[in-house]
Amino acid sequence: MITRETKQPRDYEVMDSVLDRGDAVELARHLSCSPQLIRGWCRAPETESEFASGKFGPLSRLRTLIAMVREDDGCSDRAYPIGRYIANLLGGIFVPMPQSKKSKDSEVIKNISSVLKETGDAVEVTRKVWFDETPGRISNKERAACVAEIDEAMVSLVHLRQWIETNSKKR
Question: Taking 60 as the threshold, does the pLDDT of residue 101 lie above it?
Answer without folding.
Answer: yes
